[in-house]
């Protein structure tokens, strides 16, 4: 079967891998990206970016100072949003940015991820008509400033205030304390001249909770901060160092009333407050990012899996049999066990990410028609997915990094940077432990609704089902039936964990604790229930994708899905065993099946990562390059280190040589 990545001059080990492929890599890639046309566009964009001299990098970003890297990123962003703007569709933009700029952020990241979405979904018609065309034309750059130095998670306690002054029909925006400074917002420090700022709305001395306001931060002509505004960059971070995450203090800055984002909640000129149809519509920009970040995090894991798999196919080290040749490290079972589940999880996350984006679009449609009934389900799902996927992705990338040995530790592999970027997602858009509790709140309601026989939305329909005995290992050799047996067991486990957590909570309440304290005493169990609910959704979503896939890729997807299910179950064995639903023999069976899956997938491993269709430029990894010619490329990469500009460094001349000389002269 054709693997379309084979080219003359490639590393022969990698070519051999591609020759063993049992499916059409383009078919799988087209399925992943939605259609042949989308795949072709993806390739076209990659090729055009590589050919555009405006995107050329004289030296890799890894060797640049932060300021120079920010400069290079801004320069390329200008090219994207002027020269390229009309050449790509909005949905192609993330790929263009990844190709042209990379993954560490760029001046308009928050403009796109949160500023425009907040204005789109929360500004009333008048404000939208005035500001959106300017924002969309990049006449202004905006960000989303919510988190403060002292509070990020607990939005109710944010300290920045927007106090309504009826006499002038203005809001007075103020930062009352040092820890009330906005701290962290991306692109706030240096790039943005506007921001949507989240403030406590105060009318007649009454605090009406967090609301969003459009605030101009810098002069449009000089880009100097406006009077009353203190703004700057918060300094270097683990990653995202081409992003100017910033600080902001506002000293009684006045803005007109209509700069409150008033599509849902409103303040009339006389100060009358009208609440929104759903209390949390003000939190909409966060739901937007959570719904979209799942897919992009799947892509980060896909990259790591691609690097680790290709490198493991060209790296030869050690022997499996005495006297045999040195083997490709991909032949070691431990290596397969480290990497193949990451390939499967990357596919699973990408599929789930696509489903949740669709669900988000449907929810938005409903809200536009005055119906917010889909929002609770979406909020629970996005909170759970955001938490599970970022954690899984971080662990997965780290496994991939370690699987590349010493070279994985080098920036040349691209893996340290991927890891740094990925784990940011565990924190931003709500710290994972906190967001899992949001999911758990919904599950607790679901448990009650199920007890009362009420109808349940599809994502929690399993709460209303009855458990039979687990059929894992008992359904014979039919793979379709085995998949169903495992999914039913996962459903049982997700249901059992939610019911157990609910009972633990109730027990504490009956024991005399207030609801909230009792909740804190059971949150570890609550979060477990949320994780398994989320992992069940991911498994179901992968299964739906498998069932709807064309026959040409069904077999390889089925192998991958088997590995995914077996790995997830072994990883969650404690939960499967805890109530006796599964027994030790069934876990042993799952492990045996998992080891068989590793062998089954081995001939297709390289081709499965080729189908992620990530160009060399986007992958930005010497180890993961498509042609597998890593050793020469490693040397060429290292030669670019600024420490190699001279043979004798000033640091050596000034300190080490005199020290050695002095020590020699003492002898
Ligand atoms: C197109 C491109 C898009 C994305 C780019 C993709 C990838 C990213 C790539 C690069 C990075 C780019 C950008 C990174 C940007 C990062 C930006 C940020 O981090 S912004 C700051 C984010 N901050 C947070 O997430 C804060 C987390 N905290 C909260 O959300 C809230 O404080 C809380 C934890 C939800 C609690 O809020 P509150 O106290 O008000 O509410 P309760 O817990 O009492 O709940 C009451 C009730 O409301 C329900 N609820 C809460 N939130 C929501 C919501 N958002 N929607 C719907 N419903 C909500 C909750 O479930 C309760 O329901 P009930 O049980 O009463 O029925
Ligand atoms: C890369 C990056 C980009 C960011 N971009 C933006 C941005 O563009 N705009 C913006 O406004 N913000 C941004 N942020 C800020 C980010 O949203 C917050 O840092 C995040 O929401 C976590 O809040 P926190 O820092 O207050 O953590 P904290 O709440 O202080 O968390 C510390 C610990 O306390 C625990 N904890 C807190 N509350 C609870 C609870 N109720 N129950 C159990 N445990 C709890 C957490 O689990 C965690 O272990 C960004 C952050 C990062 C890292």
Automatic annotation (TrEMBL):
FAD binds at residues 147, 186. Its cofactor is FAD. Gene3D superfamilies: Acyl-CoA dehydrogenase/oxidase, N-terminal domain (1.10.540.10), Butyryl-CoA Dehydrogenase, subunit A, domain 2 (2.40.110.10), Butyryl-CoA Dehydrogenase, subunit A, domain 3 (1.20.140.10). Pathway: Lipid metabolism; peroxisomal fatty acid beta-oxidation. Keywords: ATP-binding, FAD, Fatty acid metabolism, Flavoprotein, Lipid metabolism, Nucleotide-binding, Oxidoreductase, Peroxisome. Residues 24-141 form the Acyl-coenzyme A oxidase N-terminal domain. The active site is at residue 429. Its main location: other. Residues 483-661 form the Acyl-CoA oxidase C-terminal domain. This is Acyl-coenzyme A oxidase.
């Amino acid at each position: 079967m054709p693997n379309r990545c084979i080219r003359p001059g490639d590393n022969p080990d990698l070519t051999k891998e591609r020759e063993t492929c049992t499916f059409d890599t383009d078919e799988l890639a087209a399925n992943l990206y939605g259609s042949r046309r989308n795949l072709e566009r993806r390739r076209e964009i990659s090729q055009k970016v590589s050919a555009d001299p405006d995107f050329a990098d004289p030296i890799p970003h890894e060797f640049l100072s932060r300021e120079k890297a920010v400069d290079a990123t801004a320069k390329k962003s200008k090219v994207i949003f002027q020269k390229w703007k009309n050449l790509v569709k909005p949905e192609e933009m993330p790929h263009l940015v990844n190709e042209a700029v990379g993954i560490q952020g760029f001046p308009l990241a928050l403009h796109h991820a949160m500023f425009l979405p907040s204005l789109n979904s929360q500004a009333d018609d008048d404000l939208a008509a005035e500001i959106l065309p300017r924002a969309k034309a990049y006449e202004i750059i905006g960000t989303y400033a919510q988190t403060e130095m002292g509070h990020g998670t607990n939005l109710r306690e944010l300290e920045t205030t927007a106090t309504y002054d009826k006499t002038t029909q203005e809001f007075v925006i103020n930062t009352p304390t040092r820890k009330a400074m906005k701290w962290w917002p991306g692109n706030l420090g240096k790039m943005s001249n506007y921001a949507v700022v989240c403030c406590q709305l105060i009318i007649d001395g009454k605090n009406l909770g967090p609301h969003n306001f459009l605030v101009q931060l810098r002069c449009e002509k000089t880009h100097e901060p406006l009077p009353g505004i203190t703004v700057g960059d918060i300094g270097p971070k683990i990653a995202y160092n081409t992003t100017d995450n910033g600080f902001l203090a506002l000293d009684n800055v006045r803005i007109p009333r209509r700069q409150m984002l008033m599509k849902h909640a409103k303040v009339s000129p006389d100060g009358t407050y009208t609440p929104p149809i759903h209390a949390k519509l003000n939190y909409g920009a966060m739901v937007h990012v959570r719904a979209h970040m799942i897919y992009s995090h799947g892509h980060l894991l896909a990259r790591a899996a691609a690097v680790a798999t290709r490198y493991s196919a060209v790296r030869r080290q050690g022997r499996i049999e005495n006297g045999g040749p040195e083997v490709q490290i991909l032949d070691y079972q431990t290596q397969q066990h480290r990497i193949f589940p990451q390939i499967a999880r990357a596919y699973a996350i990408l599929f789930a990410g696509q489903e949740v984006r669709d669900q988000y679009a449907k929810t938005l449609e409903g809200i536009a028609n005055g119906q917010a009934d889909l929002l609770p389900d979406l909020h629970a799902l996005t909170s759970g997915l955001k938490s599970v996927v970022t954690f899984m992705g971080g662990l997965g990338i780290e496994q991939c990094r370690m699987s590349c040995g010493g070279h994985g530790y080098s920036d040349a592999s691209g893996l340290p940077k991927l890891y740094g970027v990925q784990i940011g997602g565990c924190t931003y858009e709500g710290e994972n432990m906190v967001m899992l509790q949001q999911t758990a709140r919904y599950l607790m309601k679901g448990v009650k609704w199920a007890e009362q026989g009420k109808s349940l939305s599809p994502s929690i329909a399993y709460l209303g089902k009855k458990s039979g005995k687990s059929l894992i290992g008992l359904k014979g050799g039919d793979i379709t039936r085995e998949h169903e047996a495992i999914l039913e067991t996962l459903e049982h486990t997700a249901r059992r964990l939610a019911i157990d957590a609910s009972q633990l909570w109730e027990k504490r309440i009956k024991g005399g604790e207030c609801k909230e304290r009792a909740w804190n005493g059971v949150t570890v169990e609550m979060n477990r229930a949320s994780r398994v609910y989320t992992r069940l959704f991911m498994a179901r979503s992968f299964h739906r994708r498998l069932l709807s896939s064309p026959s040409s890729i069904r077999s390889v997807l089925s192998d991958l899905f088997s590995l995914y299910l077996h790995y997830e179950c072994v990883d969650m064995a404690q939960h499967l065993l805890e109530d006796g639903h599964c027994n030790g023999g069934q876990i042993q069976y799952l492990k045996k099946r998992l080891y068989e899956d590793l062998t089954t997938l081995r001939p297709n491993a390289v081709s499965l990562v080729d189908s992620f269709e990530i160009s060399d430029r986007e992958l930005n990894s010497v180890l993961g390059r498509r042609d597998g010619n890593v050793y020469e490329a490693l040397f060429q990469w290292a030669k670019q280190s600024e420490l190699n500009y001279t043979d004798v460094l000033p640091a050596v001349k000034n300190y080490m040589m005199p020290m050695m000389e002095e020590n020699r002269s003492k002898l």
